[in-house]
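Archive record:
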Amino acid sequence: MQFVKYHAAGNDYLVYHENAPFDCSTQAISLICDRNRGLGSDGILVPAIAPGEMLSVHIFNTDGTEAEKSGNGLRILCRYLWDQGIVTHEPFELITKGGKVHCQVIDYGRRISIAMGLAAFPEDEQHSVDVDGVHLYLNPVSMGNPHCVVFVDEPTEALARKLGPIIEHLSLFPNRTNVQFVNVVDRRNLAVQIWERGVGYTLSSGTSSCAAAAVSRRLGFVDDQVTVHMPGGQITIELDDENNVLMQGPVCKVGQYWLDQECLSQNG
């Protein structure tokens, strides 16, 4: 099996690079993504490219589950489509499980701009809960996939690793949730640490950046344009009065990989 690997602000994905159907089990996907026993990645992108049909993509997490959306994954896919000569600098559309997005390649593929759609807020906009002895206010929001924004004085990797998996599996979130630990630096900058549903701790996330910015703006903490600072890099988010979200961020090509069948036959 052939893959092309990219990273977007430290969040890396393998793009399936064959014409044959992608026929992999949950266990096989986990093996491919494993950083010690496989090729290593935060997920796998499987594009659907057919003449006369709209471009679409399936996004798989490291645990083999399928994600509705991934902002970094979508930017990576756009770069892959650019590298393959399938798209140009002109805007185009992509279909995801979480809805349609509008994309544009800029800076010769090094940056990608994506209109991610609407940030959707539930009727119960905030929940006051105790998590592992810590009192928190949880702010749910959907970017086509579920998110929970938690404002803290100091977002750290240790905090994300400790509380993220607990919040992900709270009964408030029947389909589990992505979790963002956010500090408002000023009206144009956010510092964020992320626990990603189906993946775990991650260096950055596109939809998490959108969610963090959308909730921060709704609460009046930030302006219409925000830079989200994560351990893996920065993503710029713009929002309008209807909660439409525009994301722009970097992409870097890592290399092309061939997976040996022996990898998928490992027993442990």
Remarks:
- The mean pLDDT is 96.
